[in-house]
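$ ./design --mode recover --in tokens.txt
reading tokens...
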């Protein structure tokens, strides 16, 4: 009888706790700067679905896409202050935060394919980089792919000489600045939310993006040429405010970790397909001409850009670059 009474009390306590969570769920504000129908946008909504299901309503995830809450330069500070709880910024954003090692992901032609990339993001090198964020009050949960970047401009870009004098939009990254200068173009830092207008008005002549960003932000309406260069990688780190995450009930945190693991697989599985599909969407629009590089043209671009690796070694760390080379089997001549 006593055991039954204790069991009944435990059930009642669990039910009352569930009711309390339902009445006052833990809110995670998840802000990002791209559209809902990009790989990152879809993955954020998938994480929301899984998190709310697995916590049985104890957690409510509010997703804010398209810079609804914060622009590029504002969102990291908002996370650190606790105004939002979760972000998935591009890896270039961590350089201005003081963790310059993440700019290794911006190095041109350092990854030739997803297999090489995942040896880094899903291995010890990637884990050690996420660990460096903790001193900033940030916890790194996962890497999400967007994809490989393509150059776009008001003219066809086939050789390094074609870039000379062009104003090219970049994220805030010393590596990307060096990349554009190596091609003879003029790098222009600009918030992602302002790029369409910048291209439309001629403030910038071109930019670089995976096809999913290019198409969903309607850049094909204002860029007549898209060169399939696959010259660099754009990915994200899903990060949270560390004091917030550490303060979650352990059971809830475990459920959210599980949801993030599955959302990460989903994000990375769809990234390649989404980008290939959006190249076709750009082609079908008839507004942007797709420029395919010959092997010799791509090799010439690589030859012009690989010296940026050595140029940035003091900033990023020669040891880190070499550890990535070791994981991927990088060769400047391939």
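writing sequence...
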């Amino acid at each position: 009888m006593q055991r039954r009474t204790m069991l009944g009390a435990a059930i009642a306590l669990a039910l009352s706790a569930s009711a309390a969570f339902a009445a006052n769920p833990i809110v995670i504000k998840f802000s990002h700067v791209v559209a809902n129908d990009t790989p990152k946008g879809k993955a954020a909504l998938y994480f929301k679905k899984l998190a709310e299901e697995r916590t049985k309503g104890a957690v409510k995830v509010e997703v804010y896409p398209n810079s609804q809450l914060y622009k590029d330069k504002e969102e990291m500070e908002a996370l650190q202050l606790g105004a939002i709880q979760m972000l998935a910024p591009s890896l270039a954003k961590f350089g201005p935060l003081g963790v310059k090692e993440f700019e290794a992901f911006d190095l041109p032609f350092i990854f030739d394919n997803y297999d090489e990339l995942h040896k880094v993001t899903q291995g010890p090198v990637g884990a050690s980089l996420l660990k460096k964020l903790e001193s900033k009050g940030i916890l790194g949960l996962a890497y999400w792919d967007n994809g490989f970047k393509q150059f776009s401009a008001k003219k066809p870009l086939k050789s390094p000489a074609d870039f000379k004098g062009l104003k090219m939009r970049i994220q805030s990254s010393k590596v990307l600045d060096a990349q554009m200068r190596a091609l003879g173009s003029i790098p222009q830092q600009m918030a992602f939310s302002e790029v369409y207008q910048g291209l439309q008005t001629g403030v910038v002549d071109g930019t670089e993006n995976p096809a999913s960003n290019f198409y969903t932000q309607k850049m094909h309406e204002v860029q007549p040429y898209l060169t399939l260069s696959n010259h660099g990688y754009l990915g994200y780190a899903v990060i949270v405010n560390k004091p917030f995450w550490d303060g979650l009930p352990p059971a809830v945190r475990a459920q959210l970790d599980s949801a993030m693991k599955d959302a990460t697989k989903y994000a990375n599985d769809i990234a390649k397909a989404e980008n290939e599909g959006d190249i076709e969407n750009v082609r079908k629009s008839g507004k942007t001409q797709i420029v395919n590089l010959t092997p010799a043209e791509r090799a010439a671009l690589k030859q012009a850009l690989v010296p940026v690796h050595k140029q940035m070694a003091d900033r990023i760390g020669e040891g880190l670059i070499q550890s990535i080379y070791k994981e991927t089997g990088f060769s400047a001549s391939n």
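exit 0
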